Amino acid sequence: MCGIIGYTGKGNAQKIMLDALELLEYRGYDSAGIALLKEGQTQIVKRAGRVKDLRNLCAEVKPEGTCGIGHTRWATHGGVCDENAHPHRFGRITLIHNGIIENYRELTEKYALEGALVSETDSEVVAAVLEHFYAGDPYSAIRRTVLKLKGTFALAIMFDDQPDKIYAVRNVSPIVAAVTKDGAVLSSDVAAIVPFTADYFVMPEFHVVCLSPGGVEMFDLSGDKAPIDWQKVDWDVSRGGKGGYPFYMEKEIMEQPQVIRETILPRIKDGRPDFTAEGIPDEILAACKRICVIACGTAMHAGLVGKSLIQAMIGIHVDVVMASEFMYNDPVVDKDTLVIAISQSGETIDTLEALKFARKCGSPSISIVNVKGASIARASEHVIYTCAGPEIAVASTKAYTTQLAVLYLITARMAVARGLWSGEKVTEFIEELQRVPQVMERVLEDKEEIHRLAGTILNARDVFMIGRGLDYSILLEGSLKLKEVSYIHSEAYASGELKHGTIALITEDTPVIAVVTQDKLKSKELSNIREVQSRGARVVLLIKEHETMDEGGEWSCVYRLPQMADAFMVMPASVVLQLIAYFVSLDKGLDVDKPRNLAKVVTVE
Ligand code: AGP
Question: Taking the model in full, what pTM does it have?
Answer without folding.
Answer: 0.88
